[in-house]
Design goal:
The protein is mostly beta strands. It has one domain (23-188): Porin, CATH 2.40.160. It has one helix at residues 2-16, and strands spanning 31-40, 49-58, 64-78, 81-100, 106-121, 139-153, 158-170, 177-188. The longest helix is centred in the first third of the chain and has 15 residues, at 2-16. It starts with a helix and ends with a strand.
Amino acid sequence: MKKYLFLFVTAVSLALFPGRAHAQRYLPGMKGVELRGGFANGSKFPLNHYAGFAVSGYTKRADRWVIGAEYLMKNYGYRNVNVPCAQFTAEGGYYLKFLSDPTRTVFLSIGGSALAGYETVNWGDRMLFDGSTLLAKDAFVYGGAITLELETYLTDRIVLLANIRERALWGSSLELFTTQFGLGIKFIIH
């Protein structure tokens, strides 16, 4: 019975005195693991999509370092078929928190990242179904990305992410710029 009374008193005190108990979020040394995915350059059929994995480390000034990997699939139409272009990239970047609410539930960050990886067009097969040859070749790509990211804490350890990202990759024989819209989930592990 004492346990239930204690829980009741705690709940009432938090309800009567909001702002007295602040969540432990964006603390120096915290680490998070995130899974993200979304769409790239619109949503044509078949969908241009991406998926990624990253690890975040928070700094003393409530900013964070991000290291991750990403897979991006874009499709280009040729006659009545689609020619796939896949990019496998590694990322290293820094995100600055520039806006948050008083309850430390919603954060808005802008980040810059360096990217490097490999691009394959039609999975390395340069010959198309009608006998024509692709001029685009598989290549190593490098560049950067600018990301605007919204983080919403569902609990102290689970974070919902929404982001808009513009990537610029040199070395690609197809497109220099790619716009991405995505969602993700982050788990705070330390």
